[in-house]
Specification:
Strand content: over 45%
Order of helices and strands: EEEEEE
Oligomer: single chain
Strand order of the largest sheet: 1-2-3-4-5-6
Helix content: under 10%
Number of strands: 6
Number of helices: 0
Largest sheet: 6 strands, antiparallel
Length: about 100
């Protein structure tokens, strides 16, 4: 995410992929991000307040969509990604451990 986060904020970035990544080698990913809300999100850890950031990534091999929820104290607490092949991947915060 790019700080400060605020409703409606939009930014772009790109990522160049070089050799060693099979079909993705020598390609560029163009990313557009938008802060779409500040929400209560349900996770395995519990209900958390988080910024909801939506993203679209385009490349010559397809388009992927991403939804990220970012809590200011805990970082990313939930991610839902639908990749260019239509596969769905979801991460949720389940546990917080204190550093030793």
């Amino acid at each position: 995410v790019r700080f400060p986060l605020e409703l409606g904020k939009v930014w772009s970035s790109n990522l160049n992929i070089y050799e060693g990544w099979w079909a993705w080698a020598n390609s560029t990913l163009d990313n557009t991000y938008e802060v779409v809300g500040f929400e209560t999100v349900s996770t395995e850890f519990g209900e958390l307040e988080a910024w909801h950031v939506s993203s679209v990534t385009t490349a010559e091999f397809g388009t992927s969509t991403h939804n990220f929820w970012y809590n200011m104290e805990l970082g990313f607490v939930k991610m839902i990604i639908k990749n260019y092949a239509g596969q769905l991947l979801q991460f949720e915060l389940a546990e917080v451990k204190e550093a030793m």
